[in-house]
Amino acid sequence: MSLALDFTSPAPASAADRVTLFADVILPLPLPRLYTYRVPYELNDNVVIGGRVIVQFGAKKTLSCIVAAVHEQAPKDYQAKYILEFIDDAPVVTQPQLKLFRWMADYYMCTLGEVINAALPSALKLSSESRIQLHPAFSREENEYPLTAQEEQILDALGTLEESKALTFTEVGELLGVASFHKVIKSLMHKEAIFLFEHTADKYSPKVLKKVRLAHHFVNEASLEMLFNTLTSKPKQLDVLMKYLQRVPVYQNEHANHAGMEKAALTSSPHLSPSAVNTLIKNGVLEQFDQIVSRFPLEDEPTAQLHFTLSEAQTAARDEILNHFGEKDIVLLHGVTGAGKTEIYIDLIRKALEGGGQVLYLLPEIALTAQIVTRLLRVFGSRLGVYHSKFSDNERVEVWNGVLSGRFQVVIGVRSAVFLPFDDLSLIIVDEEHESSYKQYDPAPRYNAREVALMMGNFQGAKTLLGSATPAVETYYQAQQGRYGLVSLTKRFGEAGMPEIELIDTRKQREAKTMHNHFSAELLGEIERKLGAKEQVILFQNRRGYAPVVACQDCGWIPKCTNCAVSLSYHKHSHELRCHYCGYHDPMVSKCPCCGSRAVKTVGFGTEKIEDDLKIMLPQANVQRMDLDTTRAKNAYQQIIGDFEKQNTNVLVGTQMVTKGLDFANVSLVGIINADSIIHYPDFRAHERAYQMFVQVSGRAGRKGKKGKVLIQTADPQQVIFDKVIRNDYLEFYNYEIMQRREHGYPPFMRVIKMTVKHMEQGLCEQAAIFLTQELVERLGRTAVLGPEAPYIFRIRNFFIQEITIKLDRAHTVLKHAKQQILDAIDACKDQKEFKQARFVADVDPM
């Protein structure tokens, strides 16, 4: 699926020559090729590679798309339509980005349109369903720009809307009675009269500060003296005025009054009357006004340098990294948990910025950004941008534009940050590079941000540093082979030592009847001792909810999801049964619908049950939970982590979110409640994931000088993996795992592509999978194709699922040829009438 892009801009035509230009554009749709549109002659000089244009696609739909190439060749197969409007005078997508996006489409077997759709924030994608709304700060009376008749018509229509206060692009076209109206919308946006947003996203609601200022006719000594005399009999209003004048020096600087002060500073003061503030506004003494500020709070923070000195081991590691960078583009920093990798990252970022380049710092989880952003902000101030999915779409646009303009030289973000418009990267840091969170599962492109970062560095000539205490087997193999530089940090920073790890045999505990719910006597006693010493505890349970299963004790009935082949989990907080795959939910039942028995009990336990039990057994403890259910709100991560850092929380119960790089000074105990559920999983990476998870969560204990302790509850303490975890012996784990991978033909020795076939009818799903397998075997050979087979969860969201595993040689030419053969096999399936409704998904390098 090679998509050739021409990155050269067209040469300007002379006045005597009428040159007809055509533009190849990338539509944000899963289309196999680019579409060509004709450039209106009068706009020949306006066309910009990487800029957005508005085009008509199909009979009625209009879309914004990205210009990928400009040329003079008309399409042969169809009559090129004209581009309707040009949105941008400068590129919003850079040429290095276009090159990277093309590689992603080829490598991950998807279309360039799917990559663009994933890459661009919604506010940069316009369509006939895009909407406009009045800017809340716009006033026609104070507007300094003249309005055209069409602009007045649009503003009149928006002003009469009561409920939605928005118009779609289609409605704007109908209102004006013209097909080409995008210039009018662009002009209104320039005049800050309207906002634009996508129907799929939240409405654009700017961050507005309510402010007040002294009415301008009082800003002189005589008028102010008269005002004081007037308010002598109204002490509450006088107090408000005096407070304002203390904060805003109108005598020394009359321009300061124009900026005013936040109204909340007056109304929330315990010594001032809010009604007095409002009375002064009503009487015209104070003027209330709105000030729109950036959604991105970091730009207003002062740059206060955080000075720290690298330890001898950190300095040696930093120097070794730089030496490797002299010969290699990629270096792996293998440092034990708590070794101080972040300080090394900061030092390297400083050096990169001194050289004038940009830096991308990737993290696997939003939860990590809450801690690390605070540290980086103190070093890099307003040069730092943050990019992740909890930001609103418009906040992401601000960061996107900040990278384009050069305002943000350092960006810290999760996997989607690889899409940002960098064009002068000098350093990429991928922290916790082993994490599966870097992998995008749905929708396409199903990319791994670590691999994309490596290719981005290759395209832009940047150096890439991969950091982890438990590197991915594939990454460590590349370092062992000499393709990557390898630097090791084997000791924790400062006085901190590695935690003491103990196994607790829950089978013996149950036989001795010393288990308290799901807590062994040792774990519960250790928690109490740590709380008595004013120290904190992290408990890890890799399942959310209150209980994974609800069952009737008499007839064995278990509630199942109507859309997926899974049982419903009980969530006590909402008192409902919920599917963790599709979100389906039912009220909790008290009586079995099959036999009528009231013996309906919960079986098993999740994070919510652990939290609930602890609150009963240890009522003196402040327990908080961090999982998908408690972190849905925008700032929930920061709130939970902030409470724990301030020691408002004693015990933090969580899923794998608590395993990933969090740094808490007062945590001296980590408990892994049920280790067995992590180990026993039908996947070739199961032991690797288990080892990484155990080591990472253990690493949260004893990071700042206190001796940490880790208690692992298991019914099978003889498992080989526990010995490697206890001795923190990554190399022994790696040697065993690489031997298994070599013997059975898995990465890094082979490339794996997983094909998934989905259909709403089980029989047709199985038939389509068999047909696709036959097509693949014909093209690739029997030894390369495994399956088809139904996965453990064989139905999700009403679609039955069959999976086929393809193993391929790592050679680039072989891989490229094989991918084309796979796409041809999929096309052959789609040509069969009975499989028209089937879905075929290719996942390259599945996790």
Automatic annotation (TrEMBL):
It is an enzyme of class 5 (isomerase). InterPro entries: DEAD/DEAH_box_helicase_dom, Helicase_ATP-bd, Helicase_C-like, P-loop_NTPase, PriA, PriA_3primeBD, PriA_3primeBD_sf, PriA_C. Keywords: ATP-binding, DNA replication, DNA-binding, Helicase, Hydrolase, Isomerase, Metal-binding, Nucleotide-binding, Primosome, Zinc. Binds 2 zinc ions per subunit. Zn(2+) 1 binds at residues 552, 555, 592, 595. NCBIfam families: priA. It catalyses: Couples ATP hydrolysis with the unwinding of duplex DNA by translocating in the 3'-5' direction; ATP + H2O = ADP + phosphate + H(+). Residues 584-754 form the Helicase C-terminal domain. The gene is priA. It comes from Hymenobacter saemangeumensis. The keyword Phosphoprotein does not apply. Zn(2+) 2 binds at residues 561, 564, 579, 582. Belongs to the helicase family. PriA subfamily. Residues 322-489 form the Helicase ATP-binding domain. Its EC number is 5.6.2.4. Coiled coil: none annotated. Initiates the restart of stalled replication forks, which reloads the replicative helicase on sites other than the origin of replication. Recognizes and binds to abandoned replication forks and remodels them to uncover a helicase loading site. Promotes assembly of the primosome at these replication forks. Component of the replication restart primosome. This is Replication restart protein PriA. It holds the Pfam family PriA_3primeBD. Its cofactor is Zn(2+). It comes from the Bacteria.
